[in-house]
Amino acid sequence: MKVTILLGLVVLIFIISCGTSNKIETLKPEADLAAPILYDKEISYLNIPISMKLKDLAFQTNTILNGLIYEDKNLEGDDLMLKVWKQAPIEITDENGKIKVVLPLKIWAKVRYGSTVLGMDLYDTRELNFNGVATLLGEAKFNNWKLSAKTTVQSVVWKESPSVTIAGKSMPITYLVNPAMKYFKPTIEKKIDAAISESLNFQSNVLDALETVTKPVNVNESYDTWFKMKPIGLNATEAVLKKDVVSMNLELACFMETLIGKPLNDTFNRDEIQLKQVAKTKDQFSASLIVVSPFLKASEIITKNFQGQEFGSGSKKVTIQKVDLWHKDGKVVIALTMQGSLNGTVYLSGIPKYNKEEELIYFDDLNYVLDTKSKLMKTANWLAQGLILKKIQAYTSYSIKPEMETAKTQMEQYLKNYSPAKGIVINGKVDPIIIKNIQLTNQAMVVTLNATGKVALKIDGLQ
Question: Do 254 and 316 belong to one domain?
Fold first, then answer.
């Protein structure tokens, strides 16, 4: 009887001992002292070829230039008063690489004619209405955000000869009207040049667009991921006119970042963005995108990877309740808070790297830190085994292929017949996005992505 009771107690103690969790207390590797997140940034160059048909330039110019364009209210000196209107839409075409402007004119003239006889002034005045066509020619230049034509009047052709009827006879007055041309030619030239310049003034539109893109954008709410762009300069080539199309290249230099956790808004200073004239720009865009993953946010994401996962050998199992990451001596420390057959926190360390073939970020040379490893060998050797460590390592690795494909797809949506406004069409292509490197700071992992491709903006059919 006593033997049976004793045997029962032994079995009970064995069962209890097997069902009781061990607790492990390990030394925590202290993080490096906190410091600002500093990392190497690479400038991205977004090259945007722009082409605009002259018919659209004419459309914009006609919208701006209307009605009375010249007026002379004084008869003295030249015996002539003039009013000149734009009579019909302006036509703008290409003539041997120059801008040719054809401007239909409507002219009202008040003419004073006669002579002085025997000391008496024998003068009369007549009001005339007649039509003509002015032809201007100019070079297309792009500077200070604007396209300038610098036109000069080449000729004014009258549809009918200006004349008055005196004593039943038609008397030409071109001898009065033609000399007056020297007065209103410069005015017409200035009005045409100003209208063309206003038609293609990029400054306000470009700066408005840049101010919009500098505001952080939430690109993934689940992971609290934000995209941020900071423009630092803008280059432009000279405008080229060929076959009724004005072409030029804009090139934006900027920093691009993706941060986990909303970044602070930087105040956009429009005055800091200067347009620089250059002879040539790159033939494609090259975007270096910085992905900043603070350890605190990365810990939350990797913790989600471990949810519902068990690790163990035989009847001994643990689940990961929490994951913390920080930087220590050029490596990332991964703290795993466990519950199950072993309670407590164990510490691993490794170097984050990128596997191009499998397109995932993993921790190379991942292993328990020395104090953790020695204590596991004494209390939970089964957890220190390489097989379990490999399983744990798999959950600390994560593929970024879906994110890269999503980023590429989103970019391509804006590069396939994308029309932000009527008459403006954007087309292009993106090459595969690649990871260039991973940097470690005291507070974050910083991944640099690189994307290349081509994009073009065409203006055709403005309304």
Answer: yes
Q: Domain range holding 370? A: 23-54+202-463
Of 305, 287, 263, 280, nearest to 392 by C-alpha is: 305
Residue 51, CA distances (Å) to 128, 188, 277, 455, 460 in order: 44, 27, 17, 12, 9
pLDDT at 102: 94
| β-bridge mates for residue 427, sequence order | 456
Note the pLDDT tens digit of each residue in 122-179.
567 778 788 889 999 998 887 777 778 889 999 888 887 766 666 566 666 666 677 7
Is there a domain that residue 445 lies in? yes
Report how far residue 272's alpha carbon sits from residue 234's, in angstroms, rounded to the nearest whole number: 10
Check if the beta carbon of residue 394 is closer than 8 Å to that of residue 431. no
Most trustworthy range by pLDDT among 31-45, 47-61, 364-378: 364-378
Name the token pair of 103: 């401007």
Angle between helices 386-396 and 295-306 (to 10 degrees): 120
| Residue 104, number of CB atoms within 10 A of its CB | 16
Together in a domain, 275 and 128:
no
SS3 state of residue 276: strand
Calculate helix-pair angle for 174-199, 54-64, nearest 10 degrees: 110
Distances, alpha carbon 225 to alpha carbons 26, 196, 291, 327, 374, in Å: 34, 44, 9, 21, 39
Residues 43 and 179 in one domain: no
Angle among Cα 10, 16, 18 to the nearest 5 degrees reads 100
CB 352 within 8 A of CB 400: no
C-alpha distances (whole Å) from 387 to each of 311, 367, 390 are: 10, 12, 5
What DSSP letter does each residue of 29-49 carry, written as one string?
PPPPPP---------EEEEEE
Do residues 280 and 297 make contact, with C-beta atoms less than 8 angstroms apart? no
